[in-house]
Amino acid sequence: MKQTDDAGTGRDAEFREFVRSRGTPLHRSAYLLCGDRHLADDVVQDTLVKAYQHWRRVRQADSPEAYVRRILLNEVRGRWRRRERSVPVAEFAGEPAVADPADDVIRRDGLRQALLTLPLRQRATVVLRYLEGLSERETAAVLGCSTGTVKSQSSRALAGLKSFFDRTETKL
Asked: Residue 89 has what pLDDT?
């Protein structure tokens, strides 16, 4: 039976506003984490379904956005594990690049390819810390680790990205 009381309507309105304001950044993070637009769509949809089901807990968290990002990361991890069992990593390279003369498109694709070479935890650290602009503390909260771990994962990830760009001679 559909919930029609004021509390349900308020909850729905709060959730809709959250999705309106944070949906695009969540989708961007999902895409950068998994490297596939269609998979990112699925991950975000499943994340938002779980967030809605537990909205009372989400909105009471210190940072609802961090709570939902943690759900998103767990969804990506779960899909990564299932996919690793059935698809070799080399086939996880994502969609082929579409030829486009614009330099920014080439740089974005190069970054996407470089990110996909990193282990998931390092990739998540780079996406959250540098591409989404979270602080070390916020990134640690989303990843469920210490700020020291965020620093070490960031360092390793940046070294891996540098190595990738040195090997491919691609410039950002």
From this structure: 43
b/e sequence 124-160, b meaning 16+ C-beta within 10 Å: bbbbbbeebebebebbbbbbeeeeebbeebbebbbeb
Contact 22, 30 (CB under 8 A): no
CB atoms within 10 A of CB 33: 26
d(CA 121, CA 154): 10
CA distance 147 to 3: 41
Q: Which amino acid belongs to residue 38?
A: H
d(CA 3, CA 85): 41
Q: Count how many Cα atoms sit within 13 Å of the Cα of residue 63 in the half-sphere of its side chain.
A: 15
Position 99 pLDDT exceeds 50: no
pLDDT, position 172: 55
Q: Is the pLDDT of residue 92 over 60?
A: no
Q: What is the pTM of this model?
A: 0.63
Q: How far apart are CA 140 and CA 143, in angstroms?
A: 5
